[in-house]
């Protein structure tokens, strides 16, 4: 198991940027894929960005071209650069591993980091 701690959220205006970080308690080198998930108010948690062990990335349609996921093995950290933010990006953002079926790898979640985008 691994402990994940998300940070970097906050209040941003539409069109602004935020950079989220996810620090893992141990090496993430062996984890096939890591991802960022978003839970908007009143909605289920959804996967918005994935990065594989070889660096290939995948994005949910609504964030393509605006969000960039990256990982730093030396720091055991995964990042999510969020640009051109929209009010619909509001939610709590979590990171977790991603299985080949696109589901969360770890059963436990971090506390998440709140992102609020005002119009």
- Give the helix proportion (percent range): under 10%
* Biggest sheet architecture: 6 strands, mixed
User: Unreliable stretches, pLDDT < 50, 5 or more residues?
Assistant: none
Overall spatial form = globular
Mean pLDDT rating: 95
**What integer value in Å does the Rg equal?**
13 Å
**Which structural class best describes the helix and strand composition?**
mainly beta
Strand and helix order: EEEEEEEEEE
Proportion of strand residues? over 45%
The number of distinct helices, counting runs of at least 4 residues, comes to 0
N/C terminus separation? 39 Å
Give the strand order of the largest sheet, numbering strands 1, 2, ... along the chain: 2-10-9-4-5-6
What is the number of strand segments? 10
Layout of helices and strands:
Layout: E1 4-7, E2 10-13, E3 18-24, E4 33-39, E5 46-52, E6 57-59, E7 67-72, E8 77-82, E9 91-97, E10 113-118
Parallel strand pairs: 2-10
Antiparallel strand pairs: 1-3, 3-8, 4-5, 4-9, 5-6, 7-8, 9-10
Structural descriptors:
119 residues; mainly beta; four-stranded antiparallel β-sheet; 0% helix; globular
